[in-house]
Design goal:
This protein has no helices and twelve strands. It is mainly β. A six-stranded antiparallel sheet has the order 1-2-3-11-6-9, with no helix packed on it. Strand 2 and strand 3 form a beta hairpin.
Length: 111
């Protein structure tokens, strides 16, 4: 299984094929991903464990276990864990699912 450890947690690729990729994102407590957008893919996030704080465009949305959100191509977004336990999110990407299709707007880790 392909994975990557990050300062904020890790991701694992669970499945992928022509035009899609499925990842498990694990976000450590009090961490968040960069504020970002993608040119070539949309994403659907399902909270598997914990509570997520999602920034989507100019909105802040709180999601609990089993809730989900759709992120359109080029929509500015961020995933955050303000809880005390790991946040686990299943991410389904659709479109051209390349790891370098990422434009960061803000980043806590200086990338």
């Amino acid at each position: 299984m392909q994975y990557d450890e990050r300062t904020w947690g890790r991701w694992d690729i669970l499945d992928e094929g022509e035009g899609f990729k499925v990842k498990r994102l694990i976000v450590k407590p009090d961490n968040r991903l960069s504020l970002q957008f993608h040119h070539h893919r949309s994403e659907n996030w399902v909270v598997a464990k914990g509570e997520a704080v999602v920034t989507l465009s100019n909105k802040i949305i709180n999601l609990k276990e089993a809730e989900h959100i759709f992120i359109e191509k080029e929509a500015v977004h961020r995933l955050e864990n303000k809880g005390r336990e790991d946040l686990v999110v299943i991410e389904v990407q659709n479109g051209q699912c390349l790891e370098d299709d990422l434009t960061r707007i803000e980043d806590d880790y200086g990338r």
